Amino acid sequence: MSTNLTSLIVAVKGAQDLEEEGYIIQIGNGASVDTVRNLAAEKLDIVGSTANIVLEDAEGNTLDEIDRIRSQKVVYLNTKDSIKSVIPGPTKLPYIGNLYEMMPDMNAGFLRFFEKYGPLIDVSILGTRMVATCDPDIAEVFVKESEYFTKKIKTTLKEIKLFAGQGLFTTDTSDPDWKLAHKLLMPAFSPRAIKVYQNEMGIIAQETIRILEQYKPDEKVEILHWTTNLTFETIGKIGFGYEFGLLEKREAPPHPFIEAMGYCLKQSIVRFSQAQFMKSLPLEMNRRYDREVNLMHSIVDKVIKDRKESEDATDIEKDLLGFMLNARDEHHQGLSDENIRDQVVTFLIAGHDTTANTLAWFLYEISRQPEIEAKVLQEIANVGITHTELPSSEQISRLKYISMCLKETLRMHPPVRMLGKYCQKDCILPGGYKIEADTPSVVHLYGLHMNPKVYPDPYNFDPERWTPEEEQKRSKAAWLPFSTGPRGCIGMAFALQEAKTVIGMFLHRFKFCYDGPAVKYDPKQPTTKPVDLFMTIQNRTDFPEPSADAEVYEPKEASGPTKEMPKLDRSIEMASVKLPPITFLYGSQTGTSQDYASVLSNQARQFGFKDVTLTDMDKWKVLDSGKYEGPTGVNEDRELVVVCTATYNGMPPDNAERFDKFLDKSDAQGNERLLHGLQYAVFGIGNKNWRTYQYFPIKVDSRLDDLGAERFFLSGKGDTDGDIDSDFNDWSAHFWSHTLSHYGLVISKDISVVPSSSTNKEASQAAVVHYISPSDTEKWDLGFNNRNGTHNAIVIENKELQQGDSGRSTRDIRIDVTKLESVGDNDLLYLPGDHLEVMPENDPETVEAVALGFGMVLDSVFEIDQSSIVGLSPRSLAATIKGPCTIRNALTCYADLLSPPSRRILGYFAAQLHKIAPETAEVFDSLTMPDVNNKDQYPEFIKKYRTLLDLQKGFPQVQKIEIGQFMAAVGVMQPRRYSIASSPHMFPKEAHLAVGVVDDVVNGKHYPGLASSFLAHQIPGESKTVLRAKFKSSKGVFEMPADAETPMIMISAGTGISPFRGFLQERAYQYKHASGPVGECLVFFGCRREDQDRIYGDEFDEYVKEGVISGLHVAYSRQIPPSNRKYVQHQVLANANEIWRLLVPADETKKPAVVYICGSGAMSRDVRATFRSMAISFGAAKDEEEADKFIQKLMQDHQYNEDVWG
Ligand SMILES: Cc1cc2nc3c(=O)[nH]c(=O)nc-3n(C[C@H](O)[C@H](O)[C@H](O)COP(=O)(O)OP(=O)(O)OC[C@H]3O[C@@H](n4cnc5c(N)ncnc54)[C@H](O)[C@@H]3O)c2cc1C
Ligand SMILES: NC(=O)c1ccc[n+]([C@@H]2O[C@H](COP(=O)([O-])OP(=O)(O)OC[C@H]3O[C@@H](n4cnc5c(N)ncnc54)[C@H](OP(=O)(O)O)[C@@H]3O)[C@@H](O)[C@H]2O)c1
Ligand code: HEM
Ligand SMILES: Cc1cc2nc3c(=O)[nH]c(=O)nc-3n(C[C@H](O)[C@H](O)[C@H](O)COP(=O)(O)O)c2cc1C
Questions:
Q1: Which residue intervals of 253-399 are DSSP H helices?
Q2: Where is this region: Disordered (predicted)?
Q3: Neighbours of 470 (CB within 10 A)
Q4: pLDDT at 561
Q5: pTM
Q6: What percentage of the chain exceeds 70 in pLDDT?
């Protein structure tokens, strides 16, 4: 087979030994010079932009045409500045390195070195060697967390770590403590989250203004003192609810914490330039250092202890401390007390000093530039900020010119002057510098921001550098006062919001004047502080009027979600509150979303909403009228719509297709106000195993906005692969808290905002059950025949596919499907790739055990009183079973007895058991919500009590529950899907399934999967082999190419092979019957062992012989001896050329292959990653991001298709 790939050896210019230093790359037909540059750069660890890389032949001639490159054996890489093995820098003295030359101002020392040795220098200070840069391209590489560079606490931060401990600032990226804290704390600092702090920031600015008003107009004030007090109080109050009393009066003494912190921070610089042994000498300096660290720690420990003992202990929304104490990740892991202590110290340090400096420098700079000050004042006037009223976050976000001035201030006076990074893998930097692993690497921010090549006239304060046009001309890494990427400042949005609030309010009230010499920074301080910045503070008398063309600011009610739990006005009586109509829409196929919408609608009624609608998305009245026609003006009248929807392959559920088309109207111009006036919130339901996780809910959320509706509350997401009830509880508790406070409603203790809580009305409701007398033979007959659908499919064969002693079971099940409704074309019942949906049944032993426990007689017939189900979950047995039914049928064909007992069931049982078994009720109650320490005990509980039967055994009191309560609490079982493993042309009347039989063993006990074990137990020929089944079409999602000539690449593991057996049968049929050529089929399959679970192995081997399969590659994960191609993706990679040849054919007249992947979510993700790296290797993409886009494009074109599960 001819491939169109060219192999080249690439090496860095000057390489002596190609065996050792050369790497092979392969390029395809479409490769360009850039492809070669990128591939070679990756192999040779050349980092950063590849634009400066020059390709040369052995003689040093430049190779700038792809054809010339192809004709080479070896291509050498050089850079425009040539490759340098040695990084320049001053000669280092023994022991002290370059310390003397850099003193007394290390910062200035660095600048001198940059000027002398270039943008990358190698320096050493008392044994700490580092490489530092002032160049944006190199800085970009240093700050990007990558395999080459990371943050490791090595240089100056080593000293700060002594008191900031494992806080975010001073912990290595690789440390799990950093990872956890970063993950948990990021959401608390998003621009949206910090909006709730707006008022507090304004109040603290007002308090400071009141103090500054006490100064006489000619009195000199050290302005940094007050900006520091202000920022310290802000972080103390907002972060930890702590007041340091610094703004109480003019002469307020400094807080001991601040003094301690100030001392330690200053000492950190002294200690950095000290020999190691000095730090352990019994000097007063060292003793005081230890005392101050202890003092800081003990103050913070007390703040934490007080909070933990207060009634706000579990309030996650209270402030940052509440968040730290209560936030948990997906594994329910939270921060330890010690870690929280370190974080609090870190936030107190990082959260005030930097912003205080910035404010002081800002006031200084504009006091010297009247024209700039005039523009700043005009902007404040136009936006309508005064010092008497608290500005809103919307006003603050409109201060564009002040943002430009702040950027310029931070450029000239970056509070943090150096970013300490660490090289962890040898590489070649932009500019051609070779750098070795284990080298501390520093971005010298001051040098970067003052680099004249980047900022002409760098010592001139010029906000015009920050117009969007100017900014675009520079590299993003040219301005890094907050650093960037995962290790960038978490508090950037907080700092900027605070700074703008203070500037707006201060300048409205005062004029700050400075008439002394140019102010310098203090080199002995770790942050850039102005020395002796004494200003006078005068009343503002020249504040301008808003300009004529200024957009008048109209305050509007905050509509987004608030992070803060609302404070509810208990004085308002429910009756006096006017509530709008509220509509709950659901897009649901198997009932989850419908259930949640129904729960929310019940809650709405309980809270006093009168006009409540619950309906399918497609039945929403607005779809008929084409636009929202309700009130638009006053907030309280406007309709609120809450959408709960799932998604299927990224598409809408069946009952939301009309709704989806309506959303697409936002593509057309003129529809921006179709939903004007409407308010909405979305809760999305999905499963993370799907690449298209939450696609449709996300679309709903953004398109409703595009159509003019107003987002009332931030959308929520529930993952059915995780603890979806918990996701829903969490979101709805916040949603209701927000809603109730928005409309001024009182939360009653008796009505919980948490849906599954036993205090909810639904939980105390029971269905009314009537038993039917045997004399009513008509109803008895109906009862015996009521089995949740029609039994329509007959099992005709059921064989084991596993061999040897694999210990597992996979069944080959053949089913007569002639009675099913067709989903195929042209008389075919189905198409290859379609699914069969099977309704499982509980086994008789389980059914009997449950009936016995709950005192139900299996062959009695009952009927649910339909008037009693209003308000019950639509997925409850009571709401689902219609008409007479035997208990046996209800427990066999309807009841979900094997899933873990849901929070809803537990809440329900708790409500019923409060009086008769209060202790059990209490246990169940505690499981519906996290406890006071925010520990969610539910996940552990259901490990122990996996099913209703386990619960029955562990808590016999539940058996006191009556039948009506049982029917209201217990849910209905869900159908299961199976990929059809046959072709309708080969087996027109049959559908074959390959069913992996689930058999979980926990603590020695077997838990068979409901549907797979039900199917495995079907004995062909017996009367009970009749199943309830339905076809589900995969058209447009996982269907064979329309044209038989198109090659197919099929990749699967385990039972994921099912649809491919169908595809191959179909191809075999096409071989015999197609008039034209039939495309190649490449098959990749993964299983454990050749002699055990290579299912359908003989059939596939036969297809190879017949030529239906052109290449079959099997990976064995547990073969003895182990194979080096363990998983299917390893086989894919090993056969990349063959795949690429078919996927991107050199001959344009040939049809490109279609790729299909089927099986587990994990496998499909790994295969996708393999395709990404192939795309890079073959030159279709230059990096991961582009490779991802490449695959996305293939997916859009249906050239790469996935069908995945669990
Ligand atoms: C589109 C699609 C196609 C599919 N095609 C196939 C196919 O061709 N072949 C195939 O074999 N499968 C296929 N499946 C998977 C199939 O639908 C079933 O999910 C699978 O058979 C398991 O179902 P079950 O009822 O036997 O197991 P379940 O009872 O649903 O149990 C499955 C797992 O859920 C968890 N679980 C269940 N109950 C509890 C509990 N009480 N406590 C704790 N954990 C619990 C366990 O991890 C258990 O292993 C497909 C799925 C989809 C969505
Ligand atoms: N098929 C059965 O006989 C059977 C029997 C009982 C239960 N089940 C259950 O049914 C479900 C599906 O079973 P199945 O037969 O379809 O698959 P499977 O047998 O569980 O797995 C098929 C192959 O995929 C491999 N694999 C695991 N992770 C992978 C990844 N990230 N990328 C690529 N390959 C990966 C497995 O290797 P390793 O397992 O060696 O890692 C195995 O070789 C599972 O939940 C299983 O527990 C199946
Ligand atoms: C103008 C104000 C600020 C500036 C210039 C600034 C600058 C920086 C810089 C440069 C870093 C990266 C340090 C490094 O790489 O070593 C950083 C990190 C950090 N900053 Fe800020 N900061 C400011 C305000 C704030 C505020 C207000 C907070 C908290 C409320 C804060 C909290 C933090 C934290 C916790 C980190 C460590 C993040 C991590 O690595 O995960 N900062 N800051
Ligand atoms: C065939 C199929 C396709 C699915 N596709 C997606 C998907 O693309 N994205 C997603 O987030 N979830 C997907 N899911 C998961 C469903 O959204 C999830 O099962 C949800 O609980 C269904 O909600 P419903 O019961 O309201 O229909 C899919 C489920 C199935 C069975």
A1: 256-272, 284-309, 320-326, 337-350, 353-367, 370-383, 393-397
A2: 545-566
A3: 12
A4: 32
A5: 0.58
A6: 92
